Amino acid sequence: MLSGVNPRLTPHDLRRTVAKRVYDITCDLRIVQQLLGHRHITSTLHYIGAVDRSALRDALNQVQPIIDALPLGSERPQ
Known about the structure:
By secondary structure, the chain is mainly α. The protein is about 65% helix and about 0% strand. The relative contact order is 0.12.
């Protein structure tokens, strides 16, 4: 292809790329979670790829109840 873009590239591939880049820049899973519109942080983890899983798991276990209790933008009262 003349543009150099893989013809099998999907919108979902773009979504994963943006999620990973935002995480790489911010190191903030909550920002990526909100960007993707995920209710559970574990869904977001599938998008950011390989990270130090043991350190991430420890950090998530500490903050999971707090994160789950926070409303997403669409759940906030108007």
